[in-house]
Amino acid sequence: MNNTRIFLTFSLILYFYSHIWAQNKTDYTQAWKKVDSLNQASLPKSALAEIQKIYLQAKKENNEGQLTKALICQTNLTNTIDEDGTVENIHFLEKEIPNIPQPARSLAFTLLATKYWQFFQQQRWYIYKRTHTE
Question: From start to end of 11-128, where are the E strands?
Answer without folding.
Answer: none
